[in-house]
Amino acid sequence: MELRKDPITQSWVIQEEEKSAALETDKCPLCPGHEALCPQTLYIQPLGQSNWQVRVVPHLRPLYRIEGDAQREAEGIYDKMRNLGAHEIVVEHPNHNLPLSRQSEEHVAQVLQAYVARCADLKRDHRFRYITVFRNQGMLAGQDLSHPHSEITATPFIPRRVGYELRSCKRYFEMKERCLLCDIVRQELSQQVRVVERNDWFVAFCPFAPRVPYETWILPIEHHVSFEEDLVNWDRQLLFARLLRSILHRLESVAPAYHLVVHTSPNFAVKTDGDWQSLAEDYHWHFEIMPILPSKSKSYSLKEVYYNSLLPEMAAGELRNVV
Amino acid sequence: MELRKDPITQSWVIQEEEKSAALETDKCPLCPGHEALCPQTLYIQPLGQSNWQVRVVPHLRPLYRIEGDAQREAEGIYDKMRNLGAHEIVVEHPNHNLPLSRQSEEHVAQVLQAYVARCADLKRDHRFRYITVFRNQGMLAGQDLSHPHSEITATPFIPRRVGYELRSCKRYFEMKERCLLCDIVRQELSQQVRVVERNDWFVAFCPFAPRVPYETWILPIEHHVSFEEDLVNWDRQLLFARLLRSILHRLESVAPAYHLVVHTSPNFAVKTDGDWQSLAEDYHWHFEIMPILPSKSKSYSLKEVYYNSLLPEMAAGELRNVV
Question: What is the nearest CA distance from A106 to chain B, expressed in angstroms?
Answer without folding.
Answer: 26
